[in-house]
What does this fold into?
Amino acid sequence: MAETGMKPASLTTILRRHPATIGDLWHARLFVLKPLVFTTLSFFWVTTGLITLTAGHEAATALLRNAGFGAAAPLAATAGGVLDLVIGALASIRRTVSLALGAMIVVSLAYLLAVTWLLPSLWADPLGPLVKVVPIVLLTLVAAVILPSR
It folds into this structure.
């Protein structure tokens, strides 16, 4: 200070001169939520896969039979459960999370289109199995946006 004749500004003064922008605030808030977003998506897909392969297998098979799958319904239910498990597992690995996010969106949209075509009555189901897919797709899009670290 004595050598230069300048007095450094206090931290409070510096922060007052350069306040956080909306981008800074979004980044700070989303950074805290980032692990929760990815954990939630992975958990959701693994859990739906496990349910389909265990306690929900009969219900999934019956639903697929009603959709016209006939004798292939048990195999299709098992394949769907395994697919969900794989997607959830891929979402939990840093190197494959991007692939998993793309698969989540494609599979979710395919599911919505197929079920809308084959079993449109599910849109009126009081538990909303199709309605719940929409926020999952939106959360997946948010995850894709916040994924890059650079």
The two ends are 37 Å apart (CA to CA). The mean pLDDT is 94.
